[in-house]
Amino acid sequence: MYKNDLLVKRYSEKFKLKIIAELTKGNHSKRQIALTYGIQPSTINEWIKKYDRKDLMNTRVIVQTSDEITRIKALQKEIKQLKDLLIKKDLEKLVNENYLEKAAENLGYKDIQELKKNLNVES
Known about the structure:
By secondary structure, the protein is mainly α. The longest helix has about 40 residues, at about 65-105.
C-alpha cells in the first residue's frame, strides 16, 4: 500500500456547521453523530474548537470531600519530597563518580573500573 492510496476526506463548511447544529440540539450524542456520518469524534472535537463552541465539549466534573482533598495534598507533598530526594541522590552519585574519576587520574589508573578493581570495590 502506498501513502497516496489513503483516502483523504474534506468536509465543507456547511457540513461542519450542520454537525455542530445537530450537537447543539442535543438530540444525539457526539458518538452517535460520528457513527451516523462516519466521522471520527476527534474530527468533531476539532470543529467544535474551530467554531469556538466549548460548551459542546465533554466536561469532567470532579466531586471531592475535604478528606480526599487533604489526602491528595499530602500525597502531592510526599511526591515532591521524594523527587527532591531522588535529585539529591543523583547529584551525590555524580559528585562521587567525579571524585573517583579524579582520584583514578591522580593515582595513575586508566579509568575508575581499574581503580575499583585494584581496591576490591564492587561497581
